[in-house]
Input
Amino acid sequence: MSAIDNAGVHVDIHRPGNTAPIGKQLFSADMNPIDRGSMHFAPSFARYAFPLAPGKEWSSEAVAENTKLGKQWRYAIRGKVVDWEKVKVPAGEFHALKVIVEAEYRGKETGPDSGNGNLVETVWFVPEINNFVKLDYRDTDWQGRTVNRDGWELVSYGHKPPAPMPPAAPAAPAAPAPLAAPPVASTTR
Output
């Protein structure tokens, strides 16, 4: 994560061994994708529907737009939490919820160049990290041919300490003590 603000959770994508980000993505507070590179989803792509528990299922719709290509797709999304599994990735071994998300998408155009297809994401979500530690992605065209396949694994993670608190404002000066009445001089004769 590179930042969290009112827009959502900003993430820089890195390849192992490379410090320069190869991409940036934006997620909702629930870590559902809003911007995935050149693709913008409205509402967010429902990868998760919290709270997650084995057997939970959900469905939603989203519209994705790629302004560079001038194309738009409608997504019908179905998700299911399969069960708890142990998963090992470079960052360690985790007890994770296996989540499978399937989405059918349809472009405005028809025919072989319509952009219609299906995608399947299998993610292993770790509640203690509040994110997935592994993701397998497969995208097929309208004829079932694989057009994109990708996999992500958590290499390392850490928790940043909270930002230091700004110094406390100086205390307001105390009100001066009330003046005591001057002693009355008495004279004795």
Remarks:
- Confidence is low (pLDDT under 50) at residues 181-189.
